Amino acid sequence: MKRKKKLQVEVVELTGSAYDIGVKQGIALKSDEKWKYQKQLKTKGDTEEARKQIERMSPSLLEEIEGMAIGMEININTAIQWYGGHDTQMPSMGCTTLANDSFYVRNYDFSDEFYDARLVLTNPDNGYARIGFSQQVIGRLDGMNEKGLIIGLHFVNEAVSQKGFLPTTICRLVLEQCTSMDEAVSLIKQIPHQYCFNFSIMDKEGNNVIVEASPEKQIVRKSAQLICTNHFESEQLIGNNRAFIDGSLNRKNYLETLEKEKLSPASAYDLFNNEESPLFFKNYKEYFGTLHTVIYCPKDLNVVVGIGGNCDSYTLSFRKWLTGQGRLPHILEGEIGSGSFTF
Prior knowledge:
Blueprint: E1 5-16, H1 18-30, H2 47-57, H3 59-72, H4 76-83, E2 94-99, E3 104-110, E4 118-124, E5 130-135, E6 139-145, E7 150-157, H5 167-177, H6 181-190, E8 196-202, E9 208-213, E10 218-221, E11 226-228, H7 246-256, H8 265-273, E12 282-283, E13 288-297, E14 302-307, E15 314-317, H9 318-322, E16 331-336
Parallel strand pairs: 1-4
Antiparallel strand pairs: 1-16, 2-3, 2-11, 3-13, 4-5, 5-6, 6-7, 7-8, 8-9, 9-10, 12-13, 13-14, 14-15
Helix pairs in contact: 1-3, 2-3, 2-4, 3-4, 5-6
């Protein structure tokens, strides 16, 4: 029997100006050894160009990075390199999402060694309040904002690339600036993309869409029920897929068999978080182990979270948090193991 190890996710609460939020995070990161990995994922290109692109897309994001530099006592160019999310190398990862008209459920698959392990609730002076899992601190792997808009990223291919933004930064920009599916799609089309990724999007009205995004083109794909994994399906972009996408296709095909079932948030959670499910993976050393299961409910702004596998879920009320009610746990805990590789 293979041993499991504990995985802890910090629940972070941030309020105030973008600069103050940055300072608070910088101070917290300064003495934490786990953030040393950021040096391995730094910006490859000109930090001045990255700074201009960040300011063009979101002045508040630049202010947050400036605050982080002060909090960490590092140069602003170094902070942009580590956290700016522009022209930055990114390892492959996996994700599986299903959404209907009332909830959005997702497994995020990656390596625990490069996982932020932070669920961040942000209520800034400027921009929409939001809750989501961070990556490289300022980016978001998935999340929901106060308007009930939800977005998550899905790796497709890092071999096709150009100068642009990481998908984690793009998710954060959408949550910060958009209220609906249409606004999210419009913003995604305005942003320069570095790699090939899918973005799965749902809003409070139950509208959903997949945006297949490559550096050269973004294609919008709609269906009755949102099912998204790690490959492109449009004729225009299918040539950008990796050579082997059998695992991604298998997960999509499996979810399609469930379309006629009336899944509740509870039954969807059990399906995704069960370690014996075809949607759950244990390949953490190959950057493809399930780290969290999350369900976003846009109508009541509830979030259901499981860390690792076979985990009792935590239910958080983002709405109550926004009104100063309800106390949040400081740490969410679960366990992860290991297994054979299947991407």
